[in-house]
Amino acid sequence: MTLHPLTPDPAAWDAFVTAHPRAHLLQLSDWGALKAAFGWTPARVALADDAGTLVAGAQLLLRPLPLRLGTLAYVPAGPLVDWADAAQVRALLAALDTTARQHRAVLLKIEPGLGLDGVDFARFGLRVSPQAIQPPRTIVLDLSGDEEAILARMNQGTRRNIRKSARFEVAIRYGTRDDVPRFNALLADTGARDEFGVHAPEYYQRAYDLFAPVGRAALILGSYDGQDLAGVMVFRLGDWGWYFYGASSDRERQRMASYGVQWEGIRWAKASGARWYDLYGVPDAEPDELEAQFEARSDELWGVYRFKRGWGGDVVRGAGAWDRVYSPPLYALYRLAVRLLRRAE
After folding, report:
1. Is 68 found in the same domain as 130?
2. Which terminal residue of the chain has fewer beta carbons within 10 Å of its beta carbon, N or C?
3. CA dihedral defined by 175, 179, 181, 183, rounded to 10 degrees?
4. CB contact at 8 A, 7 and 45
5. In whole angstroms, how far apart are CA 108 and each of 116, 258, 330?
6. CATH of residue 221
7. CA 195 → CA 102, 242, 303, distances in Å?
8. pLDDT of 7-50, one tens digit each?
9. Which domain covers residue 59, as residue numbers?
10. Model pTM score
């Protein structure tokens, strides 16, 4: 079969992504549109067979590197390709190389995602990257069975806090576009309290506008006595739901509103057709180390692990980040910059 590189239009690309067995929200054209509003340039590259059917592809996100070193070309949750078909992989990588070089890319970074154990990425000219953009390790919940079955897989403390949220009169509601500023206020509180960065308020507004009206996202808020206490923005595509963004207030913390909104997010994902729910991001450590250290550490993702571990999921690690290098001298500078940034943190 002859494969032909092409640039698909957004509708054709989204149809391909949605039908793919490894469908991921970060490969949709709307995700490219979200990132385009905040400094990235999206580009889509695909391979089609003789009949014009898309068989493989990737959405790249391109961004200038500091100091005018060139461009970073980045593929989140992809590429969508049959990694067992070496000819297909090489053909797609060649097409990605062409597009990346047209944008003066120093490197192509891919983060293929979950479920690719055993794939030898090095055989395709890729090397382990010193920098991941998405968290390589996460917790995935099985949404099979009814709600009682899902609750039974959680630990006792999490189930108790879900019940406490309801008993303490936390009102759960699905937010509208007008509620996004309320969510942003909670995010500001959370970022200040837990010392982690959040996007600009416009980012979450744009994300809501792109995904919620078409049923691919929900904003869920929990309040008491007219005050918003917690919120989540959750997403779904195909068999998967994702918990990307969450926030909470310091007020009325005994009411466990964070548990109420997260449980509703899980219920929404299952009702929307998801079989799996990705809590999206825990420290990149083995399960034994996570359990041994989570009570003593609160840096980086350790604080959220304490919350996420109780929801009954499995700790899993994806393929991590891999780089395809176009300019070895500039890539060496890139690696040096990554090391210096880590020392400064």
Report:
1. yes
2. C
3. -30
4. yes
5. 19, 38, 13
6. 3.40.630.30
7. 38, 23, 11
8. 999 999 999 999 999 999 999 999 999 999 999 999 999 999 99
9. 4-134+319-344
10. 0.95
